[in-house]
Design a protein that fits this description.
Elements lengths: L1 H20 L2 E7 L12 H14 L4 E6 L3 H15 L4 E7 L2 E4 L2 E4 L12 H4 L1 E2 H8 L5 E7 L6 H4 L23 E5 L16 H9 L7 H15 L7 E5 L19 H13 L2 H10 L4 H58 L3 H79 L19 H14 L13 H14 L10 H8 L14 E4 L2 E4 L6 E3 L5 E3 L9 E3 L20 E4 L2 E4 L1
Helix pairs in contact: 2-7, 3-5, 7-8, 9-10, 9-12, 10-11, 11-12, 13-15
């Protein structure tokens, strides 16, 4: 995992370094102050602003020259040719007057007179010289001409050769070399406006779009064209001549998106939080032993440990109370049997009426005492059950609170990530003028869940709604399939029981309460959401159908009676019984022990 993260960071850095390694150079020329014709208002302003843009986007060399004469302009082009010789991208921007003579385009310096068409070659700089100067650039050669303004020289220029033509605006020009673009402020033969504001319409559009990071140059010039058409009510249409290859060519390298080092740990944390078991948190910490999400996992483990300890304590109290109740019941039973045996022995020795009354009173007293002790035992068992139920509620609340805390932590981390993304977009917007549309955000790739994780989550939620699949180990075996089939019957769904699907997981997770009915074993009954042992009163017993019935009275032991036809006038000697007992007479009858 760490290796994959490191590799992704390296690839992003290599891509960004490759884009920044290109050598980019620019020559910016403008002429506003013509010496022999009226002054142009915007070219110098346009050139200064374009020069600032090139510097701001990190060009290695930006040369700004304004209001040059013909010799100075030619020298500036020659010097720039040396700078562009080892460059990757070479750009020339010109704002001022231009002229087309016989299909050839020329840039007009500040000191040009142009009294006749014969003076054009001597007093201007041909566009072909500009293209020749930037031809050594390796990846891109770009010429931007805001020079299609209405030319005042053409009106007073005399024609020395009758066949020599002179058009309105600049002539169409297809570059002879590949990866070369020539951008005109207006298409061939049309005139561009100088503008009433601080910049010409063409320069304004360039300032709005040239600095867009990662935008292909062809799209940049296309957006410039659309903006100029809109701002001039479709009177001026910029045009681009030349072609580029299939690769993206951008003046400004794309901004590499930030790499989130916690993306994988956050995804694993969400899966562990959905499972919510101690084993899930331990598995998470085995893969992510440190970091903010590791701290969250330790906190969740502490809560689960506290809940388990409370449950174990409640179970211990329950077992102790049940053992005490069983022991007391056994003691009462033994005492009752011993006392009954003693009373029976006394009854056999003394069968007088007083003895029988005393025996009945003793039996009643013992029965009352046994009932009181059994009532005490039942109260203790009920108290133990109450403590167990409270412990179960605390465990469930702890699990829900742990899941809620985990979800809140995930949301907090996600909001923090969104805040960092907004700050990055704000930093990106600082490079791009406000009029530029923001680039569309990259789509978020949602990682697919492992089938074992889906099965484990589905098993956990089936157990929660009362459809017990056995252990939640991620193995979709026969018990899990029977549990899903039980859920289908009780919830009215028809999911395929042979696979653990995301649809089944969503349906089971949406059920807040028990779905499958609680089935108790023989001798138990349903109490709330649990099965409890059926306990009968002291004078009742549990029958085979699990119902408490009144305990049947034991049959009375009758003394063996021997009838005589004639009453004995006196007590004869006691004959010996067959079992070695003694006999005596009472009320005319013979009784033997």
């Amino acid at each position: 995992m760490a290796c994959r993260l490191a590799l992704s960071i390296v690839l992003v850095l290599v891509a960004a370094t490759s884009a920044l390694a290109d050598k980019r150079v620019a020559l910016v020329l403008s002429v506003s102050n013509y010496r022999n014709v009226a002054r142009l208002a915007n070219p110098d302003n346009d050139a200064a602003a374009i020069s600032d843009v090139f510097k701001r986007i990190g060009f290695d060399s930006v040369v700004l020259r304004q209001d040059l004469g013909v010799s100075e302009m030619r020298r500036a082009v020659r010097d720039f040719a040396a700078v562009a010789a080892d460059s990757d991208m070479a750009v020339v921007y010109y704002a001022g007057h231009g002229i087309e003579v016989n299909g050839v385009n020329f840039l007009i310096p500040a000191d040009a007179r142009l009294q006749s068409d014969f003076d054009v070659e001597d007093e201007t700089v041909p566009l072909d010289r500009i293209l020749q100067a930037i031809s050594p650039a390796k990846r891109l050669r770009l010429v931007i001409l805001d020079a299609c303004r209405d030319n005042p020289f053409a009106e007073r220029m005399t024609r020395g050769v009758a066949t020599r033509s002179m058009g309105r605006g600049l002539a169409k020009m297809e570059p002879a070399t590949a990866d070369t673009l020539i951008a005109f402020a207006a298409k061939a033969g049309a005139v561009a406006a100088d503008g009433d504001g601080a910049h010409s319409p063409f320069a304004t559009a360039l300032l709005n779009h040239l600095a867009t990071p990662g935008l292909d140059l062809r799209l940049t010039l296309g957006r410039v064209r659309d903006e100029v058409l809109k701002s001039t009510a479709r009177r001026q249409e910029p045009f681009v001549y030349g072609s580029l290859g299939g690769d993206t060519v951008a003046l400004v390298p794309p901004v590499a998106p930030p790499v989130d080092p916690n993306a994988e740990s956050r995804r694993d944390y969400e899966l562990a939080a959905q499972t919510g078991t101690k084993q899930a948190w331990l598995s998470f910490l085995a893969v992510h032993p440190s970091g903010i999400y590791a701290n969250f996992a330790h906190a969740a483990l502490d809560k689960l440990d506290a809940a388990e300890k409370a449950s174990e304590k409640a179970d211990l109290l329950k077992r102790q109370a049940e053992e005490q109740a069983r022991q007391k019941s056994e003691d009462v039973r033994k005492q009752s049997e011993e006392h009954a045996a003693r009373q029976a022995e006394q009854a056999r020795l003394q069968m007088s009426e007083q003895a029988r009354r005393d025996l009945e009173q003793d039996r009643q007293r013992i029965a009352d005492q046994a009932k009181r002790e059994l009532d005490d035992a039942r109260r203790q068992v009920a108290e133990a059950r109450r403590q167990v139920e409270e412990a179960a509620v605390q465990v469930e609340q702890a699990k829900k609170q742990a899941a809620l805390d985990a979800q809140q932590q995930i949301e907090a981390a996600r909001r923090e990530q969104e805040q960092r993304e907004r700050e990055r977009q704000a930093a990106l917007a600082a490079l791009t003028p406000p009029a530029a549309p923001a680039p569309a955000p990259a789509p978020v790739v949602v990682p697919a869940m492992d089938p074992a994780d889906i099965a484990r989550l589905l098993q956990a939620h089936l157990k929660r709604v009362g459809c017990d699949p056995g252990s939640a180990d991620g193995a979709w075996t026969t018990p899990s399939q029977k549990a899903l089939d039980n859920f289908n019957r009780n919830a009215g769904t028809k999911f395929d029981v042979k696979v653990a699907s995301l649809d089944a997981l969503d349906a089971v997770r949406a059920k807040p309460d028990r779905v499958c009915p609680l089935v108790c074993a023989k001798g138990q009954k349903v109490e709330g959401d649990r099965c409890v042992q059926i306990v009968c009163d002291g004078n009742e017993v549990l029958d085979a159908q699990g119902v408490c019935r009144r305990r049947p009275d034991p049959p009375p032991q009758k003394p063996k009676a021997v009838s005589r036809h004639e009453p004995a006038p006196r007590a004869p000697a006691a004959p010996a019984g067959s079992d070695g007992g003694r006999c005596h007479s009472f009320g005319g009858k013979l009784y033997c022990q």
